[in-house]
Design brief:
five-stranded parallel beta sheet, 235 residues, metal ion binding, two-stranded parallel sheet, single chain, 40% helix, 9 helices, alpha/beta, 2 domains, TIM Barrel
Length: 235
């Protein structure tokens, strides 16, 4: 702690502006910002072209990232999302979803500016609702944005086969699913909020619609035993 000079609370945009403007307070609190009040990221300022070129040199994909919502309705114990955007509360801190027209405006602009052939969403949970996913897919198709893409989903939410049909229509190449562990005990400890039947259904549906699947796992959780790890290996 003695090496930490500043702390900032959710969300970071206002706090970062304060720092850049010379505010030397050790604690800077941000506040919740609606997407309508946020400009698009200045990709020139952050030299986004460097990571786009790097990705292309490694795997042939010119990739950039986008955000379509904030606040995750699940509070997994290992995740920092609650700290970055605040703990979900239906009344005081609901999920903030971005207008799909604005999302596609930005995607279309960045694709043309940087000649992207792939993009991904950095939302903690892209599939916060079926409507959110489908509305984006409809707008992307309407714009004839052919670029492939991927997103991070939560297995408990993306259960409707209709959603997978729309993902496929909108040229979604891959879904990423945080499975984390094969142990019921560790699942309960971390508060992931999934069960194996629903998780398997997500992978099965994605396979049916020829959407690539990536699963994330974590080893070394508190109270994890060798037997818990073996259960994860079996999964």
């Amino acid at each position: 702690l003695e090496r930490i000079r500043k702390l900032s609370g959710p969300e970071g945009e206002i706090a970062m502006l304060e720092i850049l403007n010379g505010n030397n307070a050790p604690l800077l609190l941000g506040h919740k910002i609606g997407f309508h009040d946020l400009p698009w990221p200045d990709r020139e300022a952050i030299k986004n072209i460097r990571t786009i070129d790097l990705c292309e040199s490694m795997n042939g994909k010119r990739i950039a990232s986008f955000q379509s919502n904030r606040v995750c309705p699940v509070s997994c114990s290992y995740c920092a999302e609650d700290i970055m955007t605040g703990k979900y509360n239906k009344k005081t801190n609901p999920i903030r979803s971005r207008d799909p027209i604005d999302v596609c405006d930005e995607i279309d602009y960045v694709i043309n500016k940087y000649q992207l052939n792939y993009f991904k969403f950095v939302d903690a949970t892209f599939d916060v609702s079926a409507d959110h996913v489908i509305n984006f897919c409809e707008e992307k198709i309407k714009r004839d944005i052919k670029c492939q893409w991927e997103c991070l989903v939560h297995a408990s939410f993306i259960q409707d086969e209709k959603v997978f049909k729309w993902l496929k229509k909108a040229n979604c190449n891959q879904i990423n699913v945080g499975v984390e562990t094969g142990s019921d005990k560790i699942q309960k400890d971390i508060g992931k909020g999934i069960n194996w039947e629903r998780t398997k259904r997500v992978f099965d549906l994605a396979k049916i619609y020829d959407i690539e699947r990536r699963a994330f796992f974590i080893l070394g959780m508190p109270n994890e035993t060798e037997e818990d790890i073996k259960l994860t290996e079996k999964w």
